[in-house]
């Protein structure tokens, strides 16, 4: 038996002396305010109830990180297991410390109820991946499951991937049952999706066109959707727009296939060959890169991918500023007061495409730096401009964002933004892409270059960067090899060559040369490490007689 003083049931019934009759006990560190916890709790509840129905002696005890008792009670009311009383803050804190939870939740520690020994602290991962199959959560059991998965992959067929003992069919969006055997000998794309997710919706639109084109050309190709959410109404709406097949809504095999194909992002399109073996765990990046034209690379083997690569190179070589910024009648950008500026006026200039949004904290933080360097570059180079490509969600946010910027922009509701985000594979903002005077892409990471070199990075070419590097190498010969610095007085910092880093004083990016303490992973820009304080700054740092300054405060001695 395993004892826990003061636990009680969600009904409020006290469990005196708390003799927990179970072979295994899980301590569930969770909170109602935590989205990952709210996602995991139903999964744990399902596993708990299923184990109980099988007669397995498994108990869970909720250790709350809620901020008040009302939130605790509301959250706990949805749980079928025990809990540490919210009033027992000392006990809850002791368990957090004992298992080093440190605020990272959800966290599930599974114990042997008889000995109290820890079976695993990876309970969240195991329950998420294996559910009841993970019981009794021992290392031997997990290794056994992994061996079974490896064997299943080695002997994979279309039926072992898509079927179950109870189901040997898929469904069409008309409700027809289609035997899995009808897909044998075909290429099959397993399409992992969720309803109402923008990137999935965008990719689906492209995949439908590719699917129809491949069907038209006689390719033996089918797609099977796996919906990962449980909203039946949304499933029906989304599936109605898909001309292929699907695994029935709510089928638990979908969860198994998430793990089986190492799903890490949505959308994902895994490709299975005519022999039932997996050819590629995800071809989404290939389709994202080439768009509808990706159909020419099907089935995405090395030979076909080489064809796509050569076509992409030829297309890039033809790139001009007009091909990027002109689409039909949309042949302009806007300035202040929504004044239209023809794209033709930007031809022959170095143009930075600035992908940003007012809601993005990093974007707001970068704007002052970009404005400062923009003005410096414009003072010496009239053939230079920046164009904002906004991801703002409404016109008022766009107007607020654009108001402080001295450059140009694409209108908020502009179809060209989608093609630019796709062309340059914008995955995060802020991003800064440099287009040279010929219309060719100079660099997709002008932001880092500006952060490191400031306005001196212009025009962002390799030749300019090489020139800056040579100048810095010459200057570096006059710098001391080692020195002590007040920000890191425990060790000497050593001058060395390096790649990109963040300076621990000014917090800006640096590259090429740094003063570093490798033991402490401490870096300083040479200009920060070697900076001389002026007399005024030194004067302000002198401590008046009778005072002691330390720990960020000054006080009388």
From TrEMBL:
The keyword Nuclease does not apply. InterPro entries: C1-like_sf, DC1, Nucleoredoxin-like, Thioredoxin-like_fold, Thioredoxin-like_sf, Thioredoxin_domain, TryX_NRX_thioredoxin_dom. Keywords: NAD, Oxidoreductase, Repeat, Signal. SUPFAM superfamilies: Cysteine-rich domain, Thioredoxin-like. Gene3D superfamilies: Glutaredoxin. Residues 1-22 form the signal peptide. One of its GO terms (molecular function) is thioredoxin-disulfide reductase (NADPH) activity. It catalyses: [protein]-dithiol + NAD(+) = [protein]-disulfide + NADH + H(+); [protein]-dithiol + NADP(+) = [protein]-disulfide + NADPH + H(+). It comes from the Eukaryota. Its EC number is 1.8.1.8. Residues 1-147, 310-470 form the Thioredoxin domain. Belongs to the nucleoredoxin family. This is protein-disulfide reductase.
């Amino acid at each position: 038996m395993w004892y826990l003083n003061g636990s009680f049931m969600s009904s409020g019934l006290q469990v005196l002396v708390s003799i927990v009759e179970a072979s295994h006990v899980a301590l569930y560190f969770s909170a109602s305010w935590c989205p990952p916890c709210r996602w995991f709790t139903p999964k744990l509840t399902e596993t708990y109830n299923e184990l109980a129905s099988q007669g397995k002696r498994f108990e869970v005890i909720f250790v709350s990180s809620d901020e008040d008792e009302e939130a605790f009670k509301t959250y706990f009311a949805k749980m079928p297991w025990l809990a540490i009383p919210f009033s027992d803050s000392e006990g809850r804190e002791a368990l957090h410390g004992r298992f080093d939870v440190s605020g990272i939740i959800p966290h599930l520690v599974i114990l042997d109820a008889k000995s109290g020994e820890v079976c695993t602290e990876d309970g969240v991962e195991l329950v998420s991946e294996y559910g009841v199959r993970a019981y009794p959560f021992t290392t031997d059991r997990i290794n056994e499951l992994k061996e079974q998965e490896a064997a299943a992959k080695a002997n994979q067929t279309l039926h072992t991937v898509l079927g179950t003992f109870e189901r040997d069919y898929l469904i069409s969006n008309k409700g027809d049952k289609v035997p899995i055997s009808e897909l044998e000998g075909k290429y099959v794309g397993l399409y992992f999706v969720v309803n109402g997710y923008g990137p999935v919706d965008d990719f689906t639109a492209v995949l439908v066109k590719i699917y129809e084109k491949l069907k038209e050309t006689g390719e033996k190709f089918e797609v099977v959707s796996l919906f990962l959410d449980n909203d039946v109404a949304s499933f029906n709406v989304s599936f109605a727009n898909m001309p292929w097949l699907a695994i029935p809504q709510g089928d638990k095999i979908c969860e198994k296939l998430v793990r089986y194909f190492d799903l890490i992002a949505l959308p994902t399109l895994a490709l299975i060959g005519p022999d039932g073996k997996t050819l590629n765990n995800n071809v989404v990046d290939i389709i994202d890169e080439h768009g509808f034209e990706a159909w020419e690379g099907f089935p995405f083997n090395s030979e076909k991918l080489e064809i796509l690569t050569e076509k992409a190179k030829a297309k890039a070589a033809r790139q001009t500023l007009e091909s990027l910024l002109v689409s039909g009648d949309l042949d302009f950008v806007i300035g202040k007061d929504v004044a239209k500026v023809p794209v033709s006026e930007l031809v022959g200039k170095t143009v930075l495409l600035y992908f940003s949004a007012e809601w993005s904290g990093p974007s707001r933080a970068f704007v002052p730096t970009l404005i400062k360097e923009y003005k410096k570059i414009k003072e010496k180079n009239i053939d230079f401009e920046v164009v904002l490509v906004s991801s703002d969600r409404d016109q008022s946010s766009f107007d607020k964002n654009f108001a402080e910027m001295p450059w140009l922009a694409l209108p908020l509701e502009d179809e060209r933004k989608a093609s630019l985000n796709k062309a340059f594979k914008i995955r995060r903002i802020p991003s800064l892409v440099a287009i040279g005077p010929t219309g060719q892409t100079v660099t997709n990471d002008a932001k880092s270059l500006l952060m490191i070199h400031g306005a001196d990075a212009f025009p962002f070419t390799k030749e300019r960067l090489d020139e800056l590097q040579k100048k810095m190498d010459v200057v570096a010969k006059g710098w001391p090899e080692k020195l002590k610095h007040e920000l890191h007085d425990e060790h000497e910092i050593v001058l060395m060559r390096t790649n990109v880093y963040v300076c621990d004083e000014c917090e800006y990016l640096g590259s090429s040369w740094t003063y570093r303490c490798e033991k402490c992973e401490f870096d300083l820009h040479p200009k920060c490490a070697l900076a001389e304080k002026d007399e005024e700054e030194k004067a302000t740092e002198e401590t008046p007689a009778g005072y002691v300054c330390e720990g960020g405060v000054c006080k009388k001695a």
